[in-house]
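User: Here's a structure from my thesis project, written as structure tokens. My advisor, Dr. K., wants to see whether a designed sequence matches the one we expressed. Can you design one independently, without my sequence as a hint?
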């Protein structure tokens, strides 16, 4: 739910509900975020409140510093995941210089208490808010006492390596460690885009591909991956195609046993396992032989992954 602004006096539009509010960027909605959503859901259910996530777009650091971290999910995907994991409503507040200049008191009263009807607020221990990031957890608790809401520190979920975090997920994906990324997310990492027309070279060697354009999520290293696109198994090549041209980045997905026209359609691709690094071959014949081997290897990986019902179920919700 995105709200536009018309003037400073109307920076926050009233939204008359009583709610338990979670505040954060929550990129990726990983297992740590899921734990916080369960915590807020329990508070909301016990008090008869609505569970509301207050998140921001673009990422605050994009506005304040000129660049932000690579995104793990598109905004639409983030909203979908937040709702799946317990949010009744997701309020997307456009992050602007105007919002960044709001005082902590005004943030607490006008946005949380007045607009969102907050009766409980769940934030991380290091949460900062208001102009110059002047407000912290203690300040929020003080404002809550004045404006009618309680404040709870978010539960910290993790494993033997430390808390689950978006940074850990990004690092795992950047290293090509999809097993670790899956562990942290509780589902397969996915990328999405629109199928674009290509040079149709794959079709001439018996492996037609869907070329995915407009991908904005963080990508793993160049290479070949076992994937699901929707419920369809396949193999994906990510890279610059050194055997063909070695120039532009391409995301090419070959779907097994599929014939059809996908041009112009949206596609979400779930990255299940890494098959090999990208490499240059002597020619198209050698490339064709390797693709056949890659496809066979991907089928094995996907068959084993499909047996993991819990992970498969998590991923299916977004297909």
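Assistant: Designed independently from the structure alone:
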């Amino acid at each position: 739910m995105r709200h536009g602004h018309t003037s400073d006096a109307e920076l926050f539009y009233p939204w008359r509900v009583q709610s338990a509010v979670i505040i954060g960027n929550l990129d990726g909605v990983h297992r740590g975020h899921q734990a916080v959503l369960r915590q807020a859901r329990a508070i909301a259910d016990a008090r008869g409140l609505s569970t509301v996530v207050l998140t921001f777009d673009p990422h605050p650091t994009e506005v304040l510093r000129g660049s932000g971290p690579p995104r793990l999910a598109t905004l639409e995907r983030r909203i979908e995941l937040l709702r799946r994991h317990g949010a009744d409503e997701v309020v997307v507040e456009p992050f602007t210089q105007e919002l960044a200049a709001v005082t902590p008191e005004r943030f607490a009263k006008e946005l949380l208490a007045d607009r969102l009807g907050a009766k409980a607020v769940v934030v991380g221990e290091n949460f900062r808010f208001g102009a110059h990031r002047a407000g912290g957890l203690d300040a929020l608790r003080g404002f809550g006492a004045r404006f009618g809401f309680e404040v709870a520190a978010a539960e910290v979920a993790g494993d033997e390596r430390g808390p689950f975090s978006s940074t850990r997920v990004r690092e795992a994906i950047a290293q090509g460690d999809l097993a670790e990324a899956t562990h942290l997310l509780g589902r397969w990492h996915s990328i999405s885009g629109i199928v674009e027309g290509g040079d149709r070279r794959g079709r001439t060697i018996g492996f037609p591909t869907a070329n995915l354009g407009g991908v904005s999520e963080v990508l793993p290293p160049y290479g070949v991956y076992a994937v699901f696109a929707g419920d369809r198994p396949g193999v994906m090549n990510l890279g610059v195609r050194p055997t063909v041209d070695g120039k532009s980045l391409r995301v090419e997905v070959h779907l097994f046993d599929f014939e059809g026209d996908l041009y112009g359609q949206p596609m979400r691709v779930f990255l299940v396992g890494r098959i090999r690094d990208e490499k240059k071959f002597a020619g198209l014949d050698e490339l064709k032989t390797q693709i056949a081997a890659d496809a066979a290897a991907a089928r094995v990986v996907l068959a084993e992954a499909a047996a993991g019902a819990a992970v498969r179920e998590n991923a299916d919700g977004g297909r």
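When you compare it with your expressed construct, this may help: The mean pLDDT is 87.
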